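Technical appendix A lists one of the benchmark inputs used to test multi-chain prediction within the project. The record comprises two sequence entries:
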Amino acid sequence: MDITKTGVWSWLMQRITAVYIFIGVVVHFMVVHYYISVKTELIDTLVTRITSIGWQIFDFTLLAAVTYHALNGIYAVICDLGISRKARRGWTFIFWILGIAITVLGFLILTRLVAVSSPISINPVPSP
Amino acid sequence: MIQRYFRYFREMKLNPNQGMFTFILHRVTGIILVIYLFIHLWSLSHAFEGAEALKNAFELYNTTLFHIGEYLLLLCILIHGLNGLRLLLTDFLPITSKQRALWWFFFIIFLIIAVASLFWFLPELPYSFIQAR
């Protein structure tokens, strides 16, 4: 990441979100692929987990952090192509709109997952 | 404009070192993970069509092809994550002089996790052959 092109906030926020994602992805991966084995009924265990508010907050904040990190990363890649200052500002605007759209879509998917899974939840998993 | 990107590969050919290699790997795995993020959201968006559609969508992922893909995804996450941790350490701690040793340290951690995770991934393969038919 070229700090002279992307700016210092872009650089710092990329580091801060990286730390959160590093911890979050390990937890997410362990919960989804280790704690919930493929051999169990995947959908049932997934829905019992997602009905607890703690995991919902965890999932949503992880999605917001990952979206920021991903789009900021692509922004850095585009900046490395050697575009003008005006073009950089344009890309920043596009990526903010795209990022907010993805986060809102993710929130809607999450609420929908909760709504879909609420009736079939049998034994709720305690939140972290 | 895109040709600017070929200079990284030219640099890699002229001066083949660990730093340039991991830089290219970091970029490539990063772009793969962004594409994966969109696929992940899309597959979860089947929830809009109800629980049955979500279940059917997940059935597709319990096939051999997708289990191999899952392992490749894990490798991408490991490369990007561990290299990112190495970058964080070199950015915020005064250990730039020992960065070559740090590279090998993280490479060994990567190898250990990549090999150890095969114990979880390989047993799923024959099972998925039966499921997918």
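The interface with chain B takes residues 15, 18-19, 22, 25, 29, 33-34, 38-39, 42-43, 47, 66-67, 70-71, 73-74, 77, 80-83, 102, 105-106, 109, 112-113, 116-117, 120 of chain A (CB under 8 Å). The first helix of chain A runs from residue 3 to 6. Comparable benchmark entries are summarised in Table A2.
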